[in-house]
């Protein structure tokens, strides 16, 4: 098999088309739209049994085995898996917020979020995990 791993824009995981010049996002593979000139991103052998028919570098298996996402959706600040497994771990930590900001706990968040520290322990929930009221 041909190695089609490439780096798409914004340093995201991509799929290299037959022309060896076009690199499309992993999430553009098997999306029912031919993004490569020859349509190789929509071939039956690639898309026939998702995600098992995909090369491992193109997808991420969520903690819940019933769900998977494309590799470029991992660590994007969104809870694509529904259980935050795509946003946890050292590679998926939220970016630092800064000195005057609090980073909401990464255990139950839907989006990476920073709140001003002055909102900590003000009796109002600003983080989905309530970490701004109990930990901050």
Search tags:
disulfide bond, mainly beta, 2 helices, membrane, 6% helix, 2 domains, LDrepeatLR_classA_rpt, receptor, glycoprotein
Helix content: under 10%
Strand residue content: 15-25%
Give the helix tally.
Answer: 2
Question: What is the chain-wise order of helices and strands?
Answer: EEEHEEEEH
- DSSP E strands, number: 7
What would the principal axes of the Cα set say about the shape? elongated
Q: By helix and strand content, what is the structural category? A: mainly beta
Uncertain stretches of 5 or more adjacent residues: none
User: Quick one: biggest sheet?
Assistant: 3 strands, antiparallel
Number of domains: 2
InterPro entries: LDL_receptor-like_sf (IPR036055), LDLR-related (IPR051221), LDLR_class-A_CS (IPR023415), LDLRAD1_C (IPR057430), LDrepeatLR_classA_rpt (IPR002172)
GO molecular function: hormone binding
Pfam family, one: LDLRAD1_C
Membrane topology: Single-pass membrane protein
Structure notes:
The chain is mainly β. The protein folds into two domains: 5-73, no CATH class; 94-134. Helix content is 6%, strand content 18%. The strands form three sheets. It has a three-stranded antiparallel β-sheet with strand order 1-2-3, with no helix packed on it. The protein has a two-stranded antiparallel sheet with strand order 4-5. Strands 6-7 form a two-stranded antiparallel sheet. It is elongated. This is LRAD1 protein. Residues 95-134 form the LDLRAD1-like C-terminal domain. InterPro entries: LDL_receptor-like_sf, LDLR-related, LDLR_class-A_CS, LDLRAD1_C, LDrepeatLR_classA_rpt. Its main location: membrane.
């Amino acid at each position: 098999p041909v190695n089609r791993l490439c780096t798409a824009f914004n340093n995201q995981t991509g799929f290299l088309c037959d022309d060896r010049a076009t690199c499309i996002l992993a999430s553009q593979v098997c999306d029912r739209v031919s993004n490569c000139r020859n349509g190789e991103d929509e071939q039956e052998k690639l898309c026939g049994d998702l995600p098992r028919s995909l090369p491992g570098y193109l997808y991420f298996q969520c903690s819940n085995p019933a769900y998977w996402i494309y590799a470029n959706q991992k660590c994007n600040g969104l809870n694509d898996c529904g259980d935050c497994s795509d946003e946890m771990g050292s590679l998926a930590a939220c970016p630092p917020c800064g000195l005057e900001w609090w980073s909401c706990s990464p255990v139950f968040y839907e989006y990476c979020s920073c709140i001003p520290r002055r909102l900590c322990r003000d009796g109002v929930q600003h983080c989905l995990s309530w970490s701004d009221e109990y930990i901050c």
